[in-house]
Fold this protein.
Amino acid sequence: MPEPVLPSTARLLLARTARVQRDGRAPSLVAGVVRDGGLAWSTGRGEVPGPHADVQYRLGSISKTVTAVVVMRLRDEGRLHLDDPLDRHLPGTPLGDRTIGQLLSHLAGASAESPGGWWERTPGGSLPDLGLADTDVVLGAARRFHYSNLGFGLLGELVARQRGSSWEEAVTAEVLAPLGMARTTPRPSGTAAAGLAVHPWADVVLPEPEHHAGVMAAAGQLWATLTDLGRFAAFLLGDTAGVLDPATLEEMTVPAGVDSSAPGWSAYGLGVQVLRVEGRTLVGHGGSMPGFLAGVFVDREEQTGAVSLANTTSGLDPLVFGLLADLRGAEPRVVEPWSPSPSPVPLESLGVWFWGPAPYVLRSVAGGLLHLGPLPGRSGRASRFTRRDDGTWLGLDGYFAGETLRLAADHLDLDTFVFTRTPYDPQAPVPGGVDEGGWR
């Protein structure tokens, strides 16, 4: 069980939530913060129709992340690759030459919405019912980030065909049930909030329709409680319960497409949003459907998360980012103490190396990794590396992500770059050689 927040912190979080609910005129709003695997604090404001942590609200696009988890499970099982064209697994669409990875990252150039009526307010049918045409491809592949509900509808259909079941059955069996999210369902079940629109100029409300979105369900169909959404936040923080390999979850959080229309630093990984907010990198997803707004974001470095659910169509200021900031300020994470650990390479291999005349430092870091980067105070390329079975080192991030580092006694070989112990060491295999006249 997570340790509850301090009373003073609870007051701070409650004050922020209450103001957002009042100023945003949300008929009801439930929110909480997550650490140690579950809700450490939660509350409900407005006319919540039951115990605030057990009332269902519609998640909207958070459903996309759940869909993406199943796609990544299929990849890990070897049933598909992210570079596979869609047509290999879901033939007959105008997006057949776009890859699965591009669809997950909103880089496939698919139309933002499905053809026909507004899918979020009208019942949906099967994939053939959409009647997709070439006009549903609006951009070239990998040209730019373009958020696409249609793309995730197609991914949901891919999941269904790979598993020989419906999308709902697949995500329930492979994600929701193993994570203990028993109150997360495709349609409202048990106590659930009614979707409402709030008039812009008066304090009156209008019911929004609820329906099954058909093939578009994978883009926004799920309903969940605050408790279940908190469990999903814990999943995003690394408590995967065997649903996904932690390395795969980490892979999903690497930014691929950048949303240049968003203020600040905003990107999309594989089915998750990756945002830079007040100097922190946050991972998760927002959600909206007519009558509902939702959010789940986590700070993986701080190991905290925040979740919110409201039954209003629009007009609510983001809450989860403020809750994370409040929690971090009031109860900052106390990190584990540093302790010595063996170097994964001989100590004489570490220290200063030169790329041409530029000094770099190779050092060992926690987890048996190596880090190669410029001297402090200097600019340059930096990456972490993990050891392969053959003795080489694989770049994990930064400029050299995916590249191979080889260590020799007198030089480092990295993607055609050679690092030497002295600037342009004439005794090392410097590409292009070293002028015989030397430095002068």
